[in-house]
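Final report, Chapter 2: Outcomes

The project's central promise was a pipeline that accepts a single protein chain and returns its three-dimensional structure in a standardized token representation, suitable for archiving and comparison. That pipeline is now operational. To close this chapter, we reproduce one record exactly as it appears in the project archive, with the input sequence first and the structure output second.
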Amino acid sequence: LVVGAEALQLSDEINNIWNQSFGRMQLGYVHLDRGDYSQAIDYMEASITLGEQAGFMIPLMLSGSLLAWTYALLGDLERAWGWAERALTRADEMHPSLRISPLAAQGFIALLDGKVEKAETAVAEALDRFSADNNDPSLLLVPFASVELALAQGNPRQALQHLDRFLTVLRERSIRIMTGTLYWQRGRAELALGRLDEAAAVLKTGEQIARKSGSRPSLSRLLEAQATLAEAEEDLATAASLRQDALAIIQAIAKDL
């Protein structure tokens, strides 16, 4: 976050609008992962505005996909879908290969809206177009959407196959954003398979990653999942304590909105 802010300050000082736009998108990433949703939205909207001023159309497609994702997480599916549609339209105008991030966003939004078939169509194309060489939100959005879809379909083994692939990519690229969330998804997949020891280890590792990176949404999810595991093991006191900690984090995030 500090490095990103310093790079953005330099771009502002030399009036490099392209880098100003891209830098704001990157900071939007970080604030999204930290649960600073208002700041994430501000940065991504500014990224799009600056991009349009400079004739730099990529931000509408990339930051637009992240905005769609953010509004979906906040429960505003109508606004989320609007941003995803705008991003997909921009991608189609530029090159079909750029559809991947908007498609992943659409898949996630459709899944939240209970439209599983629509989610399947969008995620299938996003997976088909996914490349580990990408340097855009697809590296984060496609893993999350594809794993959530597999879990919703009752296919935890497929979810684990996706996670093995994507966690390897993120490690090779030294990308830490959203890693805690992927461990949360992995823990849920292990739980669905009844592998409680594996789930406990994965969720604990994810908790450590989330605490170190400052990812409040990931941490709250991981604590909630550990509470579910504690209940399965009939440790109700631990479950209650973990849920209280998760609730405190959610309340802190909500206070910042």
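Archive annotation: The first helix runs from residue 2 to 13.
This record, like all others produced under the grant, will remain available to the consortium after the project formally closes.
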